[in-house]
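Journal club side-thread
Mid-discussion, someone asked how the predicted structure for our own chain would compare to the paper's figures. Pasting it here so we can look after the session.
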Amino acid sequence: MSRLGPEKRSTGAQIAFIDLLFLLIAFFTLVIFFIETKRTEIETQLESTQEQLAQVSEERDIFKTTIADLGPGLMQFMAFRRQEAEHRRELAARELRKAQRPEVRLRYEVLPERQILYEGREYSLAAFKSQVVGKLREDSWIAFRAYARPATPFGDVVASRAEVLQNSGEFDTYWDNVTREAP
């Protein structure tokens, strides 16, 4: 015997237990290492995803500010386009209406005291409007051509023109010639 006491011998069961304990510690160490590696990898992916999200958010903010800056101009442009399209529709409808009726040239002379000379007959302004202009307006557009001699007061010419054109048709046109003699 030795001085320290009886010698203890390990048995096979104790060796197996120690080996098993070592293997368990090694296994859990490897599991912890694997989990830590995965956690690091996931954190790296998360950081890159957050950076991409920040870039996309910045781009979206730039897009939003650009849209906000362009918004009023874009709305103005769209309103202009709508007005232009409406104007084109109105012009097409107007041309259709104009084509439905022929245009007639009506030449008359304004005489002093608001009398009208038309095709050799003298009319008062009201009679000319009802008998000649009214009948022509039923089936056609009228292209008026008024003449006046220099002796005719200009006020009479203006007043007769206003009276004749009152409630005129959409495509009625009017020309004055106050300086030349009537044809």
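Post-session note: The mean pLDDT is 80.
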